[in-house]
Amino acid sequence: MNNKAAQLAAQHYEKTLDAADVSRIDFFMNLWAALDDADAAGETAAGYEVPPVERVAALSEAEIPVFTNTPVAIDAAALSRGMNAVIARAAELGGFDEEMTAALTSAKWNEIVAASDIALAGKNPAEYLAAFAEQLVADGMTEVQAQMGQLFASLVLRWQLEGPAEAVARARKKAKVFFDHQMHCPACGGDAALARVGEGGSGDGRNKSLWCPQCGTSWEFDRIRCPRCGTRNQGHLHYYNIEGDEGHRIATCDECGSYIRTRFAGEGDNAPYSPEVEDVVMARLDAVAMDPSFAGGTAERTGE
Questions:
Q1: Mind listing the domains of the chain with CATH numbers?
Q2: What's the whole-model pTM score?
């Protein structure tokens, strides 16, 4: 994560968001700081050897995540160390109720991580995290507690995946793989959490990029296309925003019924950009998108 960009973005939003949103950003900034302090990345990035450029290009062409072909060797000690650090910080900040606090702080994360399929974590993070949650339930946690444990595991695992993911991004750039229409992360295979529309990219004018929260990779994508089902039917793709906020929108698809939160950078928009901070800011759009009344058009609809 680009700490400087995140700090600048957080400072920007302190002036424009309400106290609840600012508090949520501050909460996550504290968690990220705890992971830095705990050296949750370990030595993973230094030990990762990205495949040759030609192989990276071929994998991208076939839409095969690079980590599937060349897994990341996850540092189990750093993962468990990060779990203990981030959960302790969240508990200190009052992030849980009493029952959740007891379940997460009493868990023996060293043993839990050691018992997990750590090799899978560096090959298919999404599959690993699903199995991790099942493991927590089998160990006695409730479904809700296991989901929270999974969320923290995802956050900590990110610290080890982002270095190798950056190496993959450099190899893709060297191979001139810019615009290959992949709906899933080209590095780890994860789903995009948000999109950004603005200047930049390999094309002319305003471009769209997707962002993977699991490894931090951003990649270019078609401006007019659903990132969930791939349809290019412009009549079935719409943008909505909360009244008064043109910069944060919900992009919906009539064909698959999905949506993706989208940051629109307008002309002359020099606001600092951090996908991690935007992910926190746009969490409120999830509530809007899942509200049954949303289908009735309570949000303000905007065109391309």
A1: 38-174 (no CATH), 194-302 (3.90.1670.10)
A2: 0.91
